[in-house]
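User: I'm writing a short report section on ligand binding and want a predicted complex to refer to. Could you take this sequence and adenosine-5'-triphosphate and write out the structure as tokens? A short remark afterwards would be nice.
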Amino acid sequence: MHSRVGFLLACTKRRSSYFSTCSALLSNLFSSNSNRNIFAACQRQILIGSDVSKVYYLPDSNFRWLGQLRGFCRYPATAALEQFSDDEYECDYENHPASSSVANIDEWKWKLSLLLRNKKDREVVSRDKRDRRDYEQICNLAKRMGLYSEIYGKVVVVSKVPLPNYRPDLDDKRPQREVVIPLSLQRRVEGLLQEHIDRTQLISGKAENILDGTNSSDMVEDANLDENPDSFLDGSVMEKVLQRRSLRMRNMQRAWQESPDGNKMLEFRKSLPAFKEKERLLQAIARNQVVVISGETGCGKTTQLPQYILESEIESGRGAFCSIICTQPRRISALAVAERVATERGEPLGDSVGYKVRLEGVKGKNTHLLFCTSGILLRRLLSDRNLDGITHVFVDEIHERGMNEDFLLIVLKDLLPRRPDLRLILMSATLNAELFSSYFGGAPMIHIPGFTYPVRAHFLEDLLEITGYKLTSFNQIDDYGQEKMWKTQKQLAPRKKKNQITALVEDALNKSNFESYSARARDSLACWAPDCIGFNLIEAVLCHICRKERPGAVLVFMTGWEDISCLRDQLKAHPLLGDPNRVLLLTCHGSMATSEQKLIFEKAPQNVRKIVLATNMAEASITINDVVFVVDCGKAKETTYDALNNTPCLLPSWISQASARQRRGRAGRVQPGECYHLYPRCVYEAFAEYQLPELLRTPLNSLCLQIKSLQVGSIAEFLSAALQPPESLAVSGVSLC
Ligand SMILES: Nc1ncnc2c1ncn2[C@@H]1O[C@H](COP(=O)(O)OP(=O)(O)OP(=O)(O)O)[C@@H](O)[C@H]1O
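Assistant: Sure. The structure tokens for the complex follow:
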């Protein structure tokens, strides 16, 4: 290394960073030099200008040569010439262990000024050990120059943009992996990032205002914002954040509605009867604190009404300020309706629409419409008595009069005077609207006519005629298996005391002569055992559907898990119904995990008939798209009192007319359907119009225990505020015990 063509600039430090810096520097200095025709940066030397045969030595300790170089540009011969050997160089390097040096900082100064000057470069990365030691100084330097710095293990990075805490590309220990994240998650992350950017902009806007001359105490708040953004935002900042979020929600809503898919969905939604009442409903809700809505099956009350509120709030630029809760009596309906509404809004679940049921839910920071079970809202009300932040509460399927719904009404009625801005909307398919309206001081009532595709109802006499099935006293014994024999015997044993409905059913049967039916059907009807569920009859009806009817799924309403599992076992042993290539047999019961319950919404493979065995949990609010046939056994498990054992128990009882209509309504929601009621029409006519509220059929002692566990004060006082309270004397008797 004794002669060079051109300038040789050499230094005794072996850092490649020196040389890259030198090369950058020289490139800069010589950019206007027309004589320059070679420019090369190698490991230890930099050669410049082939026409000059001089070698210049760079002093090793620092970058003061910078000035010399500048001078050299003007007076090329003034720099010192020096020759050196490789060995010498190595020695020099080993004898001077890397230390925090002024040279290093000078070098960084230069690197950073180059970085700032060069528009294309975003960052400087250095793996130099020495940089790590000087990191604090480099960091201060970067900050002074308006740059960001971070150290990742052994690597120092200075950047024009803020740096993350972790850089996978600079992590030698863990190789980079490509991770595919679901689109919904990606959208959520994007949403959160956007929100963060909005908030940062707002804060910086606010900081600018403060710097313009307002007080400084808010500055402290701003500094802490990153730790827990919302808790440190004062009212006005929060208002601005929400305004921005509302605007974004409006843009997104409009974009979806204008898209081809959104347009198609909107057209469908406009075809539902609820749409015609939209304006009237919105006005009524705006003007009254409580509104009672009765909407017949399929009119769109569950999926549309809460959505109308959300949409109109978003459209008026107040989307982020509203928070709507819609209760459902069951987990599966909360989940299914939330999924449907999210689809109708062109969003993944958990965006503006979410759901929450016991132990699970999908809900994001931007969720403004939440479907939950009545139990979840009741629990929340007990810890948050004012329902702070909630603007609208929808209580759906109120006609079912479950215990939670009745309790909810008591607590909400108590809350309304304290929250005059809160809106309460009671909804039901078949509702005794006057009763609810008078409970809430004459709240306005709105009725929406129903919409279903035509559903043909076949009662027992019709289906015996169609199928030719013969009922005998032997083929109506439901097979619960050996270990459950006691239940069958108990069921078949004559009841000492008939309840009202059983007596009505018997009367109706005695009065009917089924004249217009064949002798075979009449004989069958004479043998009909009303106390049985009729597993064999169900099997015959399912066979008839599979063999003779058009394609479409079948939904069979049973009373509980016991019937469902025993019938499933029986059907699985059947040559046709148990053939998995021809029948997909599914079950749905309250004790199943939600993920298992969700399977009922999945489509069966082609040419395979889906049969779903479900309890009355599939009776309201849910739409199984491919259901064409409904089989209704006419019974449901109800809480009753077992006097013999002095305990409350769940026993199969006749359903109400309202329930039968709801069951029928599960067919015909997206196409015409058929409903097979496994009881005669005269029995249907003898059913009670509505079911007795759970509050009135639950034994008082267990009711009182429930109230105690809710910690809502005196039992008697609480129950006296109910829509239909139990006898006060009986209540005081039990609560005193
Ligand atoms: N998951 C779904 N897939 C396809 N269409 C659906 C779905 N959910 C609802 N729909 C359609 O929207 C209509 C209205 O459904 P919605 O649940 O709002 O009715 P509803 O008035 O609450 O009736 P119900 O009380 O009987 O459930 C249905 O009749 C059906 O046509």
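A remark for your report: The chain is about 45% helix and 15% strand. The chain has four domains: 103-159, 241-448, 455-696, 701-733.
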